[in-house]
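yo, receptor protein-tyrosine kinase is done. seq:
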Amino acid sequence: MNIYVLKCALLIFFSSATPLCNGLLNIFLNTEEVQKLLGLDAELYYVRQGVINQYALNFVIPVSSKIDSLHFTWQNLGNLPLQYNINLDVQHYEAFDAPNLNISKTGLVPTSDQTFSIHLPCTALISSESDVLISINIALIPTPVALKIRRKKICMKIETGLNTQAVDAVPIRINSVKVFYYAAVCAGILAATSVMCIACVYVRNKQTRTAEEAPTNQSFTSFLPTTIRNPTTSSSYSSFRRMPSYSLIEERPTSKDLQDRIAELTIQRCRVCLQNVILEGTFSRVYHGTYTNEGTVEEEVLVKTVTDHASHVQISLLLQEGMSMYALKHPNILSILGVSFQENSSPFLLYPFHNYTNLKVFLQKCKMCSEGVAHTLTTQEVVDMALQIIEAMNYMHKKQILHKDLAARNCVVDNRLKVQITDNALSRDLFPSDYHCLGDNENRPIKWLALEGLISKTFLTRSDVWSFGVLLWELTTLAQQPYVEIDPFEMSAYLKDGYRLAQPINCPDELFAVMAYCWAMHPEDRPTFVQLQVCLKEFYMQLTRYV
Ligand SMILES: *[C@@H]1O[C@H](CO)[C@@H](O)[C@H](O)[C@H]1NC(C)=O
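structure:
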């Protein structure tokens, strides 16, 4: 089996193909068009040799305000003439200058390859998102076929004086389209390519690349040539030459900061009363306890601490990581309440406690009794939890803080399924199988890390997005270990080859598409948390609409 087939097997959900009775016909988007709309080097077939890709027809491709023409390529491959008629239906006519088709609305499908365009320029008078429906009817005998191709065209109102940058920054609504297109594109590859062909094109790609290679961003060159691509077409690397525009935020407190923060949060040890152990590692302990503050009000707390076996390094890491989310105030973030740090004894980190459980532990418990009476999560609950996490991440990123270790183990959840993100202090010791060293002394959450983090230890806001995808996968699998069968040392090669986590059983396609979208090779191709929010909110509404 060749590698592309394997890759596709991971990404494909299903593709229902309906053969047209007696029309041999191609209708597709050429490479240029797919590159323009979806940033992929591939062709996308709506009809290939008379076989309709229903799956591709079902997805609505968003069209950014900067693109004002849509292109389709078609050809009649058979001997019988095929009569067509094309209709265009636009939702907000006032947003567009007269839409215009550069072929006749009715006629015969050409017998040689023809590209036609639909010119749909925005007026820039109003901002809108319009559904555009392109109906192509082919008069086949005995039954005519009606293909409905959909686009969502975004138009921006441009006011004089507004700079273009501001216009660009308006979040574009994404659907989970891209991923579905990987799948659709893959379906095409499966149908049409041989190993030979792949070999040829691979060599050709390599040559093109050497010839065109320009000095680009160092940290990304190492995984340039391995995005999922269609081997039947020659590829352009234009999309990879863009300079990254995502933000890079530095957030670890300096030691001066750290001391200030500790000073500010210091509480008296005698006011803390430890009760029972909630979680336990080789040298870490997490307790439930109480804290009596100045006004003698007793409040319940969670206490993270270490045993006497802990080394200096471990203690300083506990403090540093415990302080990483200091001063964040958000309903979905569990931020630190106080620290007690005394000579000759282990530090205590205090967090407010309100009957929550560690999310990973909670999910594993759900799993253990999922056959019995206990609670299993519905899709709606999963999406709701995901949305809470997104809110928190949005807030953190706004505060210029990267999480860097977003995972179920670093969240807590209560019995009403309210989720809060926490820092990762002690997680390495409490969940040792989630962390690995790759030859260095750094114990990292390898299986949650984005490719750039694995390869060059770069960390971007979109690296948190990647981890969020894995967290979503944890939610839908009730905290299975991701990539159990993969050696941590092999992870970067595995990801570079285009492999990803498989779709969990019972996980709806829409949700899996969101995850897979978070795992785009190139950080810029991943959604932002703002986009994820729009996308999942919409999905949530769809779910609740029929209840
Ligand atoms: C329609 O326009 C596109 C691009 O603007 C061009 O590539 C194509 O050849 C045109 N098709 C016809 C039939 O004129």
